[in-house]
Amino acid sequence: MSKRLRFLVVLIAVCLSLTITGCSLQDLLGKNKNKTSAKKESEPIIAVSLNEQDPNKLLISKGIEDLAKKEDVKVKYINSESKEESPLKDAKILIYQGGDESILQESQSEEIPILALTQLPSGIKPEGIIIPDQEKAGELMAQTLVGKVTEGQLVILQGDPNESGSQELLAGNKAILSKYPKITIHTISSPKGSESVARTGLVDFLQKNPDNVQGILAHNESLAVQASEVLKQTQLDKKISLIGGQASIPSLERMAKGSQIGDIDTSPYLQGANAYQWAQKIIKKEPLEVNNSITSEQGEIPAKVIAVKAVTSSNLAVIQKSYTTTMQTAEKDKKQKEQAESKGKEEKDQKKDQGKDQEKDQTADKKEEGQSGDKQNSVPPGVEKVTERVKTETTRDYLNAEGKVIGTEKTVNEQVKTVPPEMLKQQAEQPKDAEKAEGDQAKDDSKKEEK
Fold first, then answer.
1. Which residues form the Periplasmic binding protein domain (predicted)?
2. Cα-based distances in Å from 393 to 405, 407, 408
């Protein structure tokens, strides 16, 4: 046989073998990957801990959620109601704005990267931070004020002075106000968790300078609310100009009513959207689009600074509509999500309960089968002969015409008979056949009713 002929014979044999086994030549060569058998990797989980006191918290989460939906990524929010032992379980990154600080330590111990949002957490070096342009916000606040006031005393209600964002806001305020020598600045700081200090300080200062204060700059919404309340109580709301540094639906409503003359749009939705994008880049170990950096006690932190703009009477209507529409959509989405989660939990509980009921039924069936089996297997193996001893007792009463017993007779009869073992087995199988027949009859009756 020639070499060429031998090659053809071998090739035909290989082809026949592939046909019989259902394999292709690509399978044999390892070029065809079985995509259906490849296990799909679980989608990454992004853990998010937001500041519960932030009036724009829902708008920030809306920015995160909208992008997460497009990429089918699960977002897990951590708050005071989280009852899981490990809320960071399976999380690939933590976006942290505020909340329980112990979650930061847990994140570090689990080597889960942290992305800061709006402010740097104390004692922690995150991978980066998404933050509004605080210095620019401070400048815009002051510019809005000097448009109406160029002399007199001004009060600055500063947030926590230990936060870098607060320091930048104050620096922005002073950069503009320092150009007006007839303006005197009085700063009242309020460390974290002690906003009431700012309120008390403002009341005292207004009492001492009832006619000299011309304006108030409140760095955040919490401080702006307290300033607005104090001005109304002291009937100075028409005389003293109030400007906020964190626009929200309540602050925009105050502007619409005339009790506040300006605010700063910090774009909370964009903060959330950018936080999501950076979180994904950190997970995938891709380079960040850094446009700034922030110096912290832990060193330089890469920053994505979000542009801000002043809210005045000229653009109030447009910005107020944008905030309101986005908030309404966010609330609707949140409600739908909660309903879906609640429904899922109910279905899970129902399945769990059904499983328990089935387990109980199976246990009962096994018990009945066991009891039945004991009766059915009453004939031990190897039995050649079975005897039954039947004892009967008869009591006979003799009654007169009135029905009174006038005599009684008792007889006892005992018989011993032999029973073939096969007969006992047949008797044991009869209940099974009767039960099967009863079930079949029930099915037939059900079909007739349906017809």
1. 102-286
2. 19, 17, 13
Q: What's this model's pTM, rounded to 2 decimal places?
A: 0.68
Whole-angstrom CA distances from 139 to 144, 145, 153, 230, 403 are 9, 10, 18, 25, 120
The lowest-confidence range among 62-71, 179-188, 322-331, 357-366 is 357-366
Residue type (1 letter), 419: V
Least confidently predicted of 27-41, 152-166, 316-330: 27-41
Number of CB atoms found within 10 A of residue 111's CB? 6
pLDDT in tens, 270-315: 999 999 999 999 999 999 988 888 888 878 899 999 999 999 999 9
Residue 29, pLDDT score = 44
| Band of residue 436 on the pLDDT scale cut at 50, 70, 90 | low
Whole-angstrom distance, CA of residue 85 vs CA of residue 422: 64
The token pair that represents 318 in the structure block: 């447009």
The residue with tokens 């879906």 is 340
Q: In what order do the strands lie in the sheet with 292-296?
A: 74-77, 45-49, 91-96, 114-117, 128-132, 299-306, 292-296
Three-class HEC string of the chain = CCHHHHHHHHHHHHHHHHHHHCCCHHHHHCCCCCCCCCCCCCCCEEEEECCCCCCCHHHHHHHHHHHHHHHCCEEEECCCCCCCCCCCCCEEEEEECCCCCHHHHHHHHCCCCEEEECCCCCCCCCCEEEEECHHHHHHHHHHHHHCCCCCEEEEEEECCCCCHHHHHHHHHHHHHHCCCCCEEEEEEECCCCCHHHHHHHHHHHHHHCCCCEEEEEECCHHHHHHHHHHHHHCCCCCCCEEEECCCCHHHHHHHHHCCCCEEEECCHHHHHHHHHHHHHHHHCCCCCCCCEEEEECCEEEEEEEECCEEECCCCHHHHHHHHHHHHHHHHHHHHHHHHHHHHHHHHHHHHHHHHHHHHHHHHHHHHHHHHHHHHHCCCCCCCCCEEEEEEEEEEEEEECCCCCEEEEEEEEEEEEEEECHHHHHHHHHHHHHHHHHHHHHHHHHHHHHHC
Total residues belonging to the chain: 451
